[in-house]
Amino acid sequence: MGWKGDRRVRGLFWEDYTDQWKMETAQRTLTEWDVLQFVTACGMTESLFLDEEYIRNQTPFRRRIAPGALIFSYAEGLVMQSGILEGTGIAYLAGEMDIKRPLFVGDGMRVRLTLVEKRETSNPERGIVVTENAVFNHRGELVLRYWPRRLIRRRAAGDADEISQDS
Questions:
Q1: What stretch of H or E contains 78?
Q2: Residue 97 and residue 75: Cα distance in Å, rounded?
Q3: pLDDT recorded at residue 157
């Protein structure tokens, strides 16, 4: 960690992502409030997410599930809360997503990140990092995988000195 201007940089720089890099976020529990607030805010007001009678009798799930968009959004929140992008993440450029199974109200969720690729850009101040982000429920079952491609700050020549002085 080091100082950059007047704010603390906590995140990982492009150079910090090594071939074997991986990490896991904290876990959070999905609540009914989470689902109801999310679908209402996003306009996903369909029976699949709101009507308990319909869910119980007309779906294979039999209980309230989270929309895939919510799972993705909360997974990104867990990644942000880990601090790895604080002060170093520049942009989420693109990504693919694959939903494997539902996440139910009451389920815990956590994200396991693994480096897939990193490459330089034409700008020496930043690089591209691609990770596989696998979302697991509290039973260890894979719920969703996505592969974000992010623009990440590179370490400036003086940053290495700043970090060693902070330690």
A1: helix 68-81
A2: 12
A3: 65
